[in-house]
Amino acid sequence: MTEEESEKHYRSGLPGFLGTIDTFISKLEAVILALGVLLMAFNTIANVIARFVFGDSIYFSGEINRILIIMITFAGIGYAARHGRHIRMSAIYDALPVGGRKALMIFIALGTSLVMFFLLYYSIIYILDLHDKGRILPALGFPIWIIYVWAPLGFLITGIQYLLTAIKNLTSRDVYLSTGVLDGYKDTETEV
Length: 192
Hints:
This protein is mainly alpha-helical and 192 residues long. It has one domain. The protein contains 6 helices and 2 strands. It has helices at residues 3-8, 16-54, 61-82, 91-95, 98-133, 150-171; strands at 176-178, 181-182. It has a two-stranded antiparallel ribbon with strand order 1-2. Strand 1 (176-178) and strand 2 form a beta hairpin. The radius of gyration is 20 Å and the shape is elongated. The two termini are 24 Å apart.
């Protein structure tokens, strides 16, 4: 099964209700990311065509792309955590025996989860502050705080994902980078 096929048919490695939550969040992330990228491509292409065919850009195109970039960024952090594609600086981690790696991974996952929930809290405060100021997007005319709702949603999903990763490591024999990604390196070298 290719990597693309495995992502289409993601099934959580967690048991029961936690697995159901994990699978639901996975599908939600996939829809948000796919829709965001497709809408951004369509919007950009339409704007280029409008500029060259009609001589004038779509006046709200930049704001729509700004909204979509924020949406893709914050949905993408949960996706990266789910698939173990986050940045790892693993010199010390790799030098540890399996038990030490497992303990460190649990600590890292719980710590990262706490940081994500901390950022969730402050992103909500930021959005409430923007709401109170009443700023609006100049071209689209709707409140600017609405476009930043993706930030707390992304932090929530990522925090939950790291918490689930810690639970997976506490309940399994192996070491996991996420609920579905086993620790280890793939041999990516090809012989020429």
